[in-house]
Amino acid sequence: MTRAEEAGASSHGAGALLEVDDLKTHFLTFEGVARAVDGVSFHLAGGETLGLVGESGCGKSVTALTAMGLIKTPPGRIAGGRIRFKGQDLLCLSPAEMRHIRGNRISMIFQEPMTSLNPVFTVGDQIAEMFVFHRQAGARESRERAVEMLRKVQIPNPEKRAGEYPHQLSGGMRQRAMIAMALACDPEILIADEPTTALDVTIQAQILELMLQLKQDTAAAIIMITHDLGIIAETAQRVVVMYAGRVVEEASTAALFEEPLHPYTQGLLRSVPRMGHRARYGRQRLAEIEGMVPSLYELPEGCAFHPRCREARAVCRREEPQIRQLDGGRRIRCWQRGG
Amino acid sequence: MPVGHLLEVEGLRVHFPVRRGVLSRTVGYVYAVDGVSFHVAKGETLGIVGESGCGKTTMGMAVLRLIEPTAGRVTFEEVDLGRMSRAQAHDLRRRMQIIFQDPYSSLNPRMAVKNILGDPMRIHGLYSGRQCAERVAYLMEKVGLTPEQANRYPHQFSGGQRQRIGIARALALSPRLIIGDEPVSALDVSIRAQIINLLIDLQQEFALSYIIISHDLAIVEHICDRIAVMYLGKIVELASYKELYATPRHPYTQALMSAVPTTDPRTRKQRILLPGDVPNPIEPPAGCRFHPRCPQRFEPCARSEPPLREVALGHAAACFRLH
Questions:
Q1: Residue stretches of chain A with pLDDT short of 70
Q2: B66 touches chain A (CB under 8 A)
């Protein structure tokens, strides 16, 4: 066992619902191998909301898509690791077996509800299909239950809306319909990939409120994927921070926002203006993280963050730090911390 | 016009005809911007916030005359833009510039950066030859790039670097006013701070005035001196950043601010959830446009439209509850 595996394994809480263990998802393209996810480990406990945070290209969505069995191969290739759902390795399942888990016991909502709903079927039919496929329900019963789901996500006039096509719904309504579809079969895990990024602020507030309400009713565990630290702070109990295909830090939400440890997390938190701050404390210059996110084709030697890190030393440039377990369920991947 | 105002906008309206059928008959109008007035002082930054469809981008385009306004008056450096000659219009382009949201689609992929920056200088007859090359190098450095990168093409740069090129292009002709239309929304979180700091530094160095159009309330507060909140083609509140964020008065502004997720537990407050969606600007609601979603509406709101009126010193709002 490598040290990474040890640290990953030891962080798994007892009775974890989902365990991602040293996952590696690579893409073979003309430009080379993009190591989108490269040794990612974390766990999800029953009933909790786990935040997965990072910038574009950090591998947060690819991790989720791998768990859902939605990586197209080729160009994708799952180069290693395990994803255990209640002890069963999802990566070993046949496509047929996976189909019975996807949308049924683990389901996902996407960022852009316009492109993830089928434009040629009515919203009601698309939700009803969940019951037809996973519950072998009859057409009429499925239809009734679809309307019931639309009512549950607080779409006004659900009987009428069920007969409408996605383009007839507003962005907020479409995302509600997506949530209705995802929750139709009472999944044990809901993966929400930037569920409100495409929405306006006031609509985002509605959708987040709805998700929190439904979570209390259904007891599903949620993986909340986002780049918005505010959404993480308001929804998640625990946070995994990703950078360049790796987990760089994990902590409880309270601990992460109170005392971020990794230089990347610290930089990220300091670089975002906070509402109400200037009005109260005057304008402080935003802290910058220099440079840019590295290309997945040419990751830097050593720690992937070192070219942008103010604290980088010789060892950071030479050798990649392993993720280490700290007190209080925290984990960190940094030579300068937690030693 | 009061002294010191660089830009004065009065009663600006932009209505887009909705055409249907084989004869393309006009069956209605989209009231994208519907009677907006404000000014921008020299060296000032005005923020325009609002959700999608509120008309903030159209408003910016109409100020620059990239869209012809339906009605209203825009006065820039004491020249009425509606009555100017072609020559004046050409000259005006030099002094008002824009930075677009998407750094991928707003740079011509077939032009090297030296031409993206240099062509406007040559067209306006400001610099040529060696001088032009020197100015390009100077601008590249000002926005945090290296002069050697001027021979490259847009695809060879990252998103943040492209936005820097967009900013350099806006600066090329030494403008007085730059309109930034969601200048950092398309960028990664760690890159946003770089661009925001750059915009603030350049403003101080070149005594620029900005209009920053954005949906992000925290960013607007950080950059802007005064802020206008738009809803369905109208300004509903206009105040200094200090006033607006300390005491938002309009029910829409209050709801908007309460909806922003915050990482700071100390500023967390009761969330005001607005029911429903933003109405269609083709048929805006009668009376106050916000009344169907307003938690504080009362009987006059559906009947007539509240004007934007001063409710405290330097703080205007359009709401009957406040008048």
A1: 1-14, 338-339
A2: no
In whole angstroms, give the CA distance from residue B136 to residue B115: 9
CB contact under 8 A, A286 and B193: yes
| Record: contact A279-B242, CB cut-off 8 A | yes
Of A24, A29, A31, give the one whose Cα is nearest residue A5. A24
Cβ contact, residue pair A292, B217, below 8 Å: no
When scoring A275, A290, A293, A297 by the number of chain B Cβ atoms within 10 A, the one with the most, hence best to mutate, is A275
Please give the Cα distance from A155 to A308 (Å, whole number).
Answer: 46
Is the CB of A55 less than 8 angstroms away from the CB of B262? no
Q: Which of B161, B218, B277 sits opposite A275 (nearest CB)?
A: B218
Dist. CA A161–CA B19, nearest whole Å: 27
pLDDT at A89: 94
Cα gap B204→B183, rounded to integer Å? 18
Q: Is B259–A269 a contact, with Cβ atoms under 8 angstroms apart? A: no
What confidence tier does B253 reach under pLDDT thresholds 50, 70, 90? very high
Sign of CA dihedral A114, A118, A120, A125: negative
What global pTM score does this model have? 0.89
Of A56, A173, A288, the CB nearest to B188: A56
Extract the tokens encoding A237. Answer: 């109990």
**CA-CA distance, A244 to B229, in Å (whole number)?**
38
**Per-residue model confidence (pLDDT) at position A113:** 75
Collect all residues of chain A within an 8 Å Cβ-Cβ radius of residue B194. Answer: 288-290
| B246 contacts: CB under 8 Å, gap ≥ 6 | A279, A280
Q: What is the mean pLDDT of residues B97-118?
A: 93
Answer left, alpha or beta for residue B78, where phi above 0 means left and psi between -120 and 50 means alpha: left
Q: Chain A: nearest CA to B308, how far in angstroms?
A: 22
pLDDT digits 0-9 by tens, B215-235: 999 999 999 999 999 999 999
Report whether B236 contacts B38 (CB < 8 A): no
Residues in chain B: 323
How far does B54 lie from chain A, in Å, by closest CA? 11
CB contact B260 to A (< 8 Å):
yes
Residue carrying the six token digits 């492109």? A115
Residue A281, chain B, CB below 8 Å: the answer is no
HSE on the CB side for A335, CA within 13 Å? 18
Question: Closest Cα to residue B32, out of B60, B10, B7?
Answer: B60
Residue A206 contacts B, CB cutoff 8 Å: yes
* Cβ within 8 Å, pair B217-A280: no
Q: What integer pLDDT is reported at residue B265 of this predicted model?
A: 62
**Exposure of A317 by Cβ count < 10 A (0-12 exposed, 13-18 middle, 19+ buried)?**
middle
Q: Looking at the predicted structure, is the pLDDT value of residue B3 above 70?
A: no
Can you read off the two tokens belonging to residue B306?
């509240």
Chain B residue at shortest CA distance from A198: B52
Domains of chain B in sequence order: 5-42+53-86+220-322 (3.40.50.300)
Total Cβ atoms within 10 A of residue A41: 25
pLDDT, tens only, B41-64? 999 999 999 998 899 999 999 999
Contacts across the A-B interface (CB distance below 8 Å)? 131
- Alpha helices by DSSP H, B24-177: 56-63, 86-95, 113-123, 129-142, 159-171
